[in-house]
Amino acid sequence: MPRGDKSKYTAKQKRKAEHIEESYEERGLDAREAEARAWATVNKQSGGGERSGPHKSPAQKSRARKDSARRAVATKHGHSPNRGRMTARRGGRHASG
User: Fold this and answer.
1) Any idea what the Cα angle at residue 37 is, between residues 31 and 5, rounded to 5°?
2) Do the Cβ atoms of 42 and 9 come closer than 8 Å?
3) Quick check: 25 and 31 in contact, CB under 8 A?
4) Exposed/middle/buried for 46, CB within 10 Å: 0-12, 13-18, 19+?
5) The whole model's pTM is what?
6) Which residues contact residue 42 at a Cβ distance below 8 angstroms, ignoring those fewer than 6 apart?
7) Across the chain, where does the E strand assignment appear?
8) DSSP letter string over 24-35?
9) Which residues have a Cβ under 8 Å from the Cβ of 80 and sit 6 or more positions away?
10) What does the pLDDT look like over 22-52, one tens digit per residue?
11) Which residues fall within 8 angstroms of residue 18, CB to CB, at 6 or more apart?
12) How far apart (Å, rounded) are the C-alpha atoms in residues 40 and 24?
């Protein structure tokens, strides 16, 4: 599929992009920029065109991103989920002494 080809999008996605594009044009954006922003919005909301095989819904992707961000922040602040177990092991079986 060449870049910019919209054949893999559903009719609903195409209608949504058209509506968003018109809205941007009403706000004063030129047609080309309005179209680009409209398709970027549709891609963000729906995850792009139709795909074969299993894939995550936009809600599942959003949840996964939030969970990942939460874990990253916790790790950054020293609250790694493995921290307690790793500390307990240090003084346990593998301690040399």
Assistant:
1) 85
2) yes
3) yes
4) middle
5) 0.51
6) 9, 13, 16, 17, 20
7) none
8) HHHTT--HHHHH
9) 74
10) 999 999 999 999 999 999 999 888 877 766 5
11) 38
12) 12
Per DSSP, 11 falls in state H
Dist CA 96 CA 68 (whole Å): 36
Q: What single-letter DSSP state applies at residue 53?
A: S
* Count of C-beta atoms within a 10 Å radius of residue 23: 14
Q: What does R_g of the chain's alpha carbons equal in angstroms? A: 23
Which residue ranges make up each domain of the chain?
9-49, 57-97
What is the distance between the alpha carbons of residues 68 and 75, in angstroms, rounded to a whole number? 11
